[in-house]
Amino acid sequence: MRHHCGLFGIAGHPDAARLTYLGLYAQQHRGQESAGIVTRDDRAFKRSVGMGLVTDVFTRRRLEELANPFAIGHVRYSTTGSCHEVNIQPLLVNYSRGQVAVAHNGNLINAGLLRKEYEEHGAIFNTTSDTEVIVHLLANPAHLDKRYPAAHVLSHLQGAYSVLFLFPNRMVAARDPYGFRPLVLGRMDNGAVVVASETCAFDIIDAKFWREVEPGEAVAIYDDGTVQSQRITPPNTFRPAYCIFEQIYFADPASDVFGENVHEVRTAMGARLATEAPVDADAVVAIPNCARCAALGYARQSGIPYGRAFITSHYAGRSFIMPEQNQRNLTVKMKLNVIKPTVKGKRLIVVEDSVVRGTTTRGKIGTLRAAGAKEIHLRVASPPIQHPCYFGIDFPTREELVAHEKNVEEIRAYLGVDSLHYLSIEGMLACVKHPGRHYCTACFSGQYPMNVDHPVSKFALERFQLQMFE
Amino acid sequence: MRHHCGLFGIAGHPDAARLTYLGLYAQQHRGQESAGIVTRDDRAFKRSVGMGLVTDVFTRRRLEELANPFAIGHVRYSTTGSCHEVNIQPLLVNYSRGQVAVAHNGNLINAGLLRKEYEEHGAIFNTTSDTEVIVHLLANPAHLDKRYPAAHVLSHLQGAYSVLFLFPNRMVAARDPYGFRPLVLGRMDNGAVVVASETCAFDIIDAKFWREVEPGEAVAIYDDGTVQSQRITPPNTFRPAYCIFEQIYFADPASDVFGENVHEVRTAMGARLATEAPVDADAVVAIPNCARCAALGYARQSGIPYGRAFITSHYAGRSFIMPEQNQRNLTVKMKLNVIKPTVKGKRLIVVEDSVVRGTTTRGKIGTLRAAGAKEIHLRVASPPIQHPCYFGIDFPTREELVAHEKNVEEIRAYLGVDSLHYLSIEGMLACVKHPGRHYCTACFSGQYPMNVDHPVSKFALERFQLQMFE
Amino acid sequence: MRHHCGLFGIAGHPDAARLTYLGLYAQQHRGQESAGIVTRDDRAFKRSVGMGLVTDVFTRRRLEELANPFAIGHVRYSTTGSCHEVNIQPLLVNYSRGQVAVAHNGNLINAGLLRKEYEEHGAIFNTTSDTEVIVHLLANPAHLDKRYPAAHVLSHLQGAYSVLFLFPNRMVAARDPYGFRPLVLGRMDNGAVVVASETCAFDIIDAKFWREVEPGEAVAIYDDGTVQSQRITPPNTFRPAYCIFEQIYFADPASDVFGENVHEVRTAMGARLATEAPVDADAVVAIPNCARCAALGYARQSGIPYGRAFITSHYAGRSFIMPEQNQRNLTVKMKLNVIKPTVKGKRLIVVEDSVVRGTTTRGKIGTLRAAGAKEIHLRVASPPIQHPCYFGIDFPTREELVAHEKNVEEIRAYLGVDSLHYLSIEGMLACVKHPGRHYCTACFSGQYPMNVDHPVSKFALERFQLQMFE
Amino acid sequence: MRHHCGLFGIAGHPDAARLTYLGLYAQQHRGQESAGIVTRDDRAFKRSVGMGLVTDVFTRRRLEELANPFAIGHVRYSTTGSCHEVNIQPLLVNYSRGQVAVAHNGNLINAGLLRKEYEEHGAIFNTTSDTEVIVHLLANPAHLDKRYPAAHVLSHLQGAYSVLFLFPNRMVAARDPYGFRPLVLGRMDNGAVVVASETCAFDIIDAKFWREVEPGEAVAIYDDGTVQSQRITPPNTFRPAYCIFEQIYFADPASDVFGENVHEVRTAMGARLATEAPVDADAVVAIPNCARCAALGYARQSGIPYGRAFITSHYAGRSFIMPEQNQRNLTVKMKLNVIKPTVKGKRLIVVEDSVVRGTTTRGKIGTLRAAGAKEIHLRVASPPIQHPCYFGIDFPTREELVAHEKNVEEIRAYLGVDSLHYLSIEGMLACVKHPGRHYCTACFSGQYPMNVDHPVSKFALERFQLQMFE
Question: How far apart are CA A230 and CA B331, in angstroms?
Answer without folding.
Answer: 60
